[in-house]
Amino acid sequence: MSPLDAVYKDNARYVWGLCYRMTGDASEAEDIVQETFARAVASPPARTDEPWRPWLVRVAVNLARDRLRRRKRRGYDGPWLPSPIETEGEVAGDDDQEHRYGMLESVSFAFLLAMEVLTPRQRAVLLLRDVFDYSVSESAVALELTETNVKTTHHRARAALEAYDHARVVPTRTLQERTRGAIEQLGVALATGDVARIEALLAANARNVNDGGGEFHAARRPVVGANRIARFLIGLQRRLGPDATFGVHTINGLPALVLDWPSAPVHVAPRTAVAFEVDEGGRVRAIYAVLATRKLRALAR
Predict the structure, then answer these.
(1) Domain ranges in the chain?
(2) Over the stretch 27-74, which tens digit does the pLDDT of each residue have?
């Protein structure tokens, strides 16, 4: 094994995790990791006898910030949602309390969507300080900022996430079980076509957001309100073919549904991942459906 192979083995997963949280996109995170190590081969740091991680983080974060800026300039076809990743068997534990946001919480759909209000610099500072537990001086070195800039940016980022902090989604075992129970109840109500029952399982101001990425038919605006969502879901259920199957996966920290429909018509997604946010009373307050093929590559078949 070459020295750089050892560096890759020790750091690739760490860098990927940072870039996934930066972009909310598993494929982009993988691309950034590959580009970061390609640069390490072409133009390594001056002191290869020192730890590589600070150099790798600096390069990767800069690449992630560039991609975020390009995404904003290009726009996105319809609502944007994070790409799902498998987190089977993981649960937020006591060690997460050492940081403001735990490692599992920081890949939840709720957290990644909350991050969308932040600038690329604010995202980077918040993640390094509040998720990866970097000091002010370490963050300044990694991001090539002054310590004063890090402190100011960090303060603004935390202020921008104030709304999220009031209704945080921490994937504890209790929340995972509550979410699984809500999914099971919704499944029964959908199977029987019980609109009233579905509506009762939803929060009054619930939202249903669909990300087809311009590839498949999908609602281009969020469906809001329990009754509207209930009727929307019943309509989707009735259109499914007999070979459509549902499976429960744990994605981004919480139980979720994965729908596979091999014989789906043209322009209809053959696979959809559906994530849920459930309130303390067990009612569903948000449904996130990801249909775009590119965004589902990280999910096991």
Answers:
(1) 3-166, 173-296
(2) 999 999 999 999 998 888 877 778 889 999 999 999 999 999 998 888
pTM above 0.85, yes or no: yes
In the numeric block, the tokens 């190590």 are attached to 37
The pLDDT tens digits of the residues spanning 175-224 come to: 999 999 999 999 999 999 999 999 999 999 999 999 999 899 888 899 99
Query: What's the fold here for domain 3-166?
Result: Butyryl-CoA Dehydrogenase, subunit A; domain 3 (1.20.140)
Separation between Cα atoms, residue 134 and residue 132, nearest integer Å: 6
The answer to whether the 3-166 and 173-296 domains have the same CATH topology is: no
Q: How far apart are CA 10 and CA 244, in angstroms?
A: 41
End-to-end CA distance of the chain: 32
- Which residue stretches of 43-172 are H helix? 53-74, 109-114, 120-126, 136-143, 147-160, 162-166
Neighbours of 231 (CB within 10 A): 15
Residue 96 predicted with pLDDT over 70: no
Whether 126 contacts 106, CB under 8 Å: no
Give the list of residues 6+ apart from residue 252 with CB closer than 8 angstroms, or none: 82, 84, 85, 87, 107, 108, 109, 112, 275
Per the CB < 8 A criterion, the answer to whether 102 and 90 are in contact is no
CATH of 173-296, one of 3.10.25.10, 3.30.470.30, 3.10.450.50, 3.40.50.2000: 3.10.450.50
Say if residues 7 and 40 touch (Cβ distance below 8 Å).
Answer: yes
